[in-house]
Design goal:
By secondary structure, this protein is mainly beta. The chain has three domains: about 15-135, Carboxypeptidase-like, regulatory domain (Immunoglobulin-like, Sandwich); about 150-240, Ferric Hydroxamate Uptake Protein, Chain A, domain 1 (Beta Complex); about 250-985, Maltoporin, Chain A (Beta Barrel). The protein contains six helices and 58 strands. The strands form ten sheets. The protein has a 22-stranded antiparallel beta barrel. Strands 3-2-5-6-8 form a five-stranded mixed β-sheet, with no helix packed on it. A five-stranded mixed β-sheet has the order 9-14-15-12-13. The radius of gyration is 30 Å and the shape is globular. The two termini are about 40 Å apart.
């Protein structure tokens, strides 16, 4: 009698084995997995026409197909979970294989050997202890589920899951809690929930906020992903939510982070010893709880999973150099619902709906730092986020060899910020030496910016799989997104401006070209900015990918993706439209010894990134942005909302108005390069992976990524002034183009009073003076993994990497600018002189070790230890040997004698501290009556390490030689120690 065999090179029978460089992925999918294999006789002859019935052990979902003439079969697009396979054929005894686990994006290979009828045989149960690698995959992927996560001390958020993967690092905290993948900016990732893209398409930062307990499993792709995936030059995170089954289940979870057990980051001070960040008064207390129910509405047919989570979160902090105090609270509930309907054998319908609407209410007060007292309330501001989200999906096994999945979804996100002082209060920053560098108006940085806005995504996709033959599986499909951004932005105050007060000297040239008059030592600058409209971005793609089994030991993945992006202005006209973006995705994997114990793999691919809708709003809307400069003849205190506000006494205006945008929808011909190329990245991966024994595996992987064809806005006024004698129209003279390349654009060649665009010219890139955009990421990952066997598991990775170039990507960590596609980079040629160097997400060394140990069946402990080298630091000035640009950070500082400039290229001012962090957890399972109760405690940053993660990098303030006393001041520390208690109840 022959037992069923599991080919170790292909099958992953336990999710625990998925802590590896690559998981069993035959064809890319972001919601489900597959089972495939062969059926043979006891003499190893192919059995054709065998009936293969697979059944989900929780829901009864059933698929039935027949083996082909070579005994091969494949059943794609299966919901994750455990399955029973029953195989029967005339003249043979039935074969039953149980506990075949299917994971997201993964393929389980099951090879069955049938015995003749009447022969005594044993029932075979698939072992969940087999640790294996997939010798057919060339992707860099990690899959992890809730069971594994519960064993670890892991914060309950998607970013923390992503950071377990090699080559990921936490980005600049001013953007939020997001990860950088493979040297890319934190705004270049893609996130999916049950197949719906929930990525923020306004600026790429973040995604829909779903409670962690709503998820079932995650797939993290760090590179080499297939043609199905696009619109990302960073990484991809797929999440699948929980779903109902034939078993009724009710329960709840509660999680508490007490402020009393939380440490504070150290305070930070500027060069003069004055307070900059007062962290001792920080307060954070968070309680999250949810209740859920799941079960069958109709046995084996219709199931539901529903969750409701009330939230209570409160945070308090002191800001503006110890002068303001804010208390922020959020208590919006979350609801989520998952429905699954097995409408017929081989056909299913799914519905996912959830709401992550949130209102963060901030109560802002004055603060007396000397006496450590909270003063009168100055304002109340509300930031709205989130929205309603829906996904409808159909999956069908149409024939034995052809399957389909159709999806329609809606993703909404609110972007409204409002304040009760919007009509009365201006933001005022006093930068004079006689005054503290803090907000002195009755508005603050927390409430001066007002926006009424929202984003909405409508997505449709169709994915198909054709099992052509034993050697070819072809996946192909189409996806389309219609993304709409609505925005109305303005500054607070009766005149909608904010003010800066500066010291100066007679004869100084201001950024608008005005000259400070004799006898004037102070000036004021106002800025008024409004923008509004509805903007649409249409993105579509076609893809095809053939997984070709060349021999038993060699597998090729041959994919091609075609992308198209169409960005429209507020009048519905296309202003950026790029078609025919062809992205090859090629992979190869070689089972070296033919025994499934080791593999050599390689992957090359191209990945395109769409133009963020932020570019539509800023560049193609009716933006009005003007700065004015005045002689400042002192200030007069005026009581507004109970606060003494130093309103400006304005003298004569200095120079002309400085228009960055004039309030009209600009002519596309004058703001966009008519031969614009897309932003894309090329990637190559080469790796090796091998089993050490049944439980242990190791691997080494090399990666190179190169950014090509970046898109950013650049001024061309210096060229038109030299060529025609006038600035380029449109305020600032900015044109969206490819830095360093030729630009075709309409210009005002006769410099008439109407600034008419009367001539289309091609400007050589060499004459504009901008370098080509560059970003290169090189990395080597070493991994060692132990599957969950004998009550413990462990994963360890070391990554050596470097990320260098002259642009970080869509956002800019140097100044926390989230203006995707329109950052300060490339605004003036002078800003890019010295920009080559190690980029903000460069981390030369990263160590990650995590694992768990079950001391008893009920008591488990876990650990997560990370070590990272520091971030490169800069020394920014404001001047340049060729003249001071209108604004922005340069890589030159005026030397001490004021006669020449010192050159400080990117990353040449050292690095921040190494970051060491140890997290520990302990969980205990008990049974109370009929209830299963899991109690858990996590301690994060056990030793309360306080490494510096960010500091002020601007050495000069406003004019060359004027030293910014904030330079070198620490503005960010690693998260201090905190404790989290949780309890889960299930019955």
């Amino acid at each position: 009698m022959k037992n069923k065999t599991f080919k170790r090179s292909l099958i992953a029978m336990s999710i625990s084995t998925l802590f590896t460089i690559s998981t069993p992925v035959l064809a890319a999918s972001n919601t489900d997995g597959s089972i495939q294999g062969s059926v043979t006789s006891e003499t190893s002859q192919a059995v054709s026409g065998a009936s293969i019935i697979i059944k989900n052990q929780d829901t009864g979902l059933t698929r039935t197909i027949q083996s082909d003439s070579n005994g091969k079969y494949r059943i794609p697009r299966l919901p994750i979970g455990a399955y029973t396979i029953t195989i029967s054929a005339d003249g043979y005894a039935d074969e039953v294989i149980e506990n075949v686990n299917v994971a997201i994006g993964s393929n389980s290979n099951v090879e069955a050997s049938l015995d003749p009828e009447g022969m005594e045989r044993l029932k075979v149960t698939g072992s969940s202890r087999i640790a294996s690698i997939d010798t057919t995959s060339s992707e860099a992927t990690m899959v992890i589920g809730q069971v594994e996560i519960e064993r670890l001390p892991l914060p309950k958020d998607i970013t923390s899951v992503a950071l377990l993967a090699p080559g990921t690092t936490r980005g600049d905290g001013r953007f939020g809690n997001f990860a950088s993948f493979g040297g890319a900016s934190v705004a270049e990732n893609a996130f999916f929930i049950n197949g719906l893209n929930v990525t923020n398409f306004r600026n790429g930062l973040g995604f829909s906020n779903v409670p962690f307990d709503f998820y079932e499993q995650f797939e993290v792709k760090t590179g080499g992903y297939g043609a199905e995936f696009g619109r990302s030059t960073g990484g991809v995170v797929n999440a699948v939510t929980k779903r109902g089954s034939n078993n009724w289940e009710f329960g709840g979870n509660i999680r508490y982070r007490p402020d009393a057990l939380r440490s504070d980051s150290p305070n930070s001070y500027d060069m003069n010893g004055d307070i900059y960040n007062y962290n001792a008064e920080d307060y954070y207390d968070n309680v999250e709880g949810n209740v859920y129910a799941s079960g069958p509405i109709i046995q084996d047919k219709l199931f539901f999973y529903a969750m409701y989570q009330p939230r209570s979160e409160k945070e308090e902090y002191v800001a503006d150099r110890g002068t303001t105090f804010s208390s922020v609270k959020s208590d919006n509930p979350f609801w989520g619902l998952k429905l699954d309907w097995n409408i017929a054998e081989n056909h299913t319908l799914e519905f996912t709906g959830f709401s992550d609407e949130s209102d963060d209410e901030s109560s802002n007060h004055l603060y007396d730092y000397e006496n450590k007292k909270v003063g009168d309330q100055t304002s109340v501001s509300i930031d709205k986020s989130g929205g309603d989200n829906y996904v409808f999906a159909y999956t069908g096994q149409l024939t034995d060899s052809f399957s389909a999945r159709l999806l329609y979804g809606v993703n909404e996100y609110n972007l409204t910020s409002s304040s009760n002082i919007a009509e009365d209060c201006n933001l005022i920053y006093d930068r004079r030496a006689s005054a503290p560098k803090v907000s002195r108006g009755c508005a603050s940085a927390a409430d001066y910016f007002q926006e009424e806005g929202s984003d909405k995504r409508e997505e449709f996709r169709a994915d198909f799989e054709w099992f052509v033959s034993d050697n070819h599986v072809i996946n192909f499909g189409y996806d389309q997104e219609i993304n709409t951004s609505s925005s109305n932005q303005y500054y607070s105050g009766p005149d909608g401006v904010y003010w800066f007060y500066y010291d100066t000297a007679p004869g100084t040239e201001l950024p608008n070209g005005g000259i400070v008059p004799d006898g004037v030592t102070e000036y004021a600058r106002s800025r008024e900015r409004t923008v509004g409209g509805d903007f649409e971005v249409n993105s579509s793609a076609l893809y095809i990918e053939d997984t070709w089994t060349v021999t038993d030991d060699i597998t090729l993945s041959l994919g091609l993706r075609w992308d198209s992006f169409n960005n429209k202005n507020s009048e519905g006209e296309s202003f950026v439209k790029i078609d025919d973006m062809f992205a090859p995705r090629l992979g190869a994997s070689w089972d070296i010894n033919g025994d499934g114990e080791s593999k050599l793999f390689a992957n090359v691919g191209r990945y395109f990134l769409p133009v963020a809708s932020n570019t539509n709003v800023r560049l193609a809307g009716n933006e009005y942005d003007v700065r004015k400069y005045y002689v400042l003849e002192g200030t007069t205190d005026q009581e507004i909302n109970g606060i003494q506000v130093p309103t400006p006494n304005l003298g004569a205006q200095i120079g002309d108005d400085e228009y960055l945008a004039d309030g009209t929808v600009p002519d596309t011909a004058g703001i966009v390069d008519q031969d614009l190329d897309p932003m894309y990245q090329d990637e190559i991966i080469i790796g090796y992976q091998a089993m050490l024994n049944e439980d242990w595996s190791w691997g080494i992987k090399g990666t190179q990524r190169k950014l090509n064809g970046a898109i950013d806005d650049m001024t061309i006024s210096h060229w038109t002034e030299a060529k025609y004698g006038c600035s380029h129209p449109g305020g600032g003279g900015y044109v969206l183009g490819n830095p360093g390349e030729d630009m075709t654009v309409a210009v005002d060649s006769d410099c008439d009073a109407e600034h008419t665009l009367d001539k289309t010219v091609t400007i050589p890139g060499s004459e504009l003076g901008y370098p080509e955009a560059e970003r290169t990421y090189n990395a080597v990952d070493l991994t060692l993994n132990r599957a969950w066997t004998d009550d413990w598991s462990m994963s360890a990775t070391y990554t050596w990497s470097q990320s260098y170039g002259n642009t970080e990507g869509l956002v800019k960590s140097d100044n926390a600018q989230d203006d995707a596609g329109l950052t300060q980079d490339f605004d003036f040629p002078e800003l890019m002189d010295g920009a080559d160097g190690y980029l903000p997400n460069d981390r030369r060394h990263m160590f990650k070790i995590y694992g768990a140990y079950a001391i008893t069946d009920d008591f488990t402990v876990g650990a997560n230890f990370t070590v990272e080298s520091g971030r490169p630091l800069n020394k920014f000035g404001v001047g340049h040997p060729n003249g001071q640009p209108t604004y922005g950070d340069t890589y030159y500082t005026l030397n001490s004698d004021g006669t020449s400039y010192d050159f400080n290229p990117r990353g040449s001012d050292g690095r921040t501290d190494w970051v060491y962090r140890l997290d520990l957890s302990a969980s205990y399972m008990i049974q109370v009556s009929e209830l299963d109760v899991l109690l858990k405690a996590n301690i994060y940053n056990v030793f309360d390490s306080s490494a510096t993660t960010r500091q002020v990098e601007t050495y000069e303030l406003n004019s060359p030689g004027t030293i910014d006393t904030d330079f070198g001041t620490i503005t960010g520390y690693q998260t201090p120690r905190y404790v989290e208690f949780s309890a889960s109840v299930k019955f």
